[in-house]
Amino acid sequence: MATTPLSAAPTDVLPVVAARAREGDDGGVDVMEARHEAPTAEVVPQRAVGAVLLAGGLVGAVVALVLLLDKIALLEDPAFVPSCSIDPVLACGTIMKTWQASVLGFPNPVIGLLTFPVAAAMGALLLGGVALPRWAWWGLQAGTTLGLLFAHWLIVQSLVVIGALCPWCMVAWVAVIAMFWFTTVADLRAGNLGGAPAGPGFARRHGWGLAAWYLAIVVAIVATFPAWAAGLVGL
């Protein structure tokens, strides 16, 4: 197959060409083959984070809307039982009556209604193949990091202080953690957070870290409510 000089190679395949040179490949560089390999290193992770942002943003927005409607109904009728109040542990009503449910002076779901749709929109752009500028990735990283910190503060408050869980909130926790994780992986792959870009091996194995994170939260819930957790599995 004919080869093309490095000087004539399109800019989107130069990273692949350079990588082959570092590996000691002294043969001709097939630009068409390099162009075919380039999207594997860049487009696939971008679309993956786009899918997670879109799905997580939509799910989070729905959860926030449901919780806000239940909160309004509870304010109108103190005897109202929210849709996610199932038993003494899974008790949204208990949580909604605490100050932690309105940290900024208004119901926390309002924050979700303002932020989750933004994440979903960014995810749609990424899925559509839009190349976001670096400042947009920094914004995504900052937003998902703040969301992560807030979600984990709520987790601690639910387990340690309030002693109850909100099923809808837990769905939001899952979404926020996934959005933060995939955004961070994409930023590390692209070198947006400083330092050299992470290698492809990191991206292939990052799912184990996310699974361990979720498992740690499940363990914390079981350790906090052992009798309730045992009842769920019939023990």
UniProtKB/TrEMBL annotation:
Tagged with keyword Amino-acid biosynthesis: no
Coiled coil listed as a keyword: no
Main location class: membrane
Subcellular location: Membrane
Transmembrane segments: 48-69, 110-129, 135-155, 162-182, 211-233
Domain of life, source organism: Bacteria
Coiled-coil regions listed in the entry: none
Pfam families the record matches: VKOR
Lipid bilayer topology: Multi-pass membrane protein
Keyword vocabulary terms for this entry: Disulfide bond, Membrane, Oxidoreductase, Quinone, Redox-active center, Transmembrane, Transmembrane helix
Family (UniProt): Belongs to the VKOR family.
UniProt protein name: Vitamin K epoxide reductase domain-containing protein
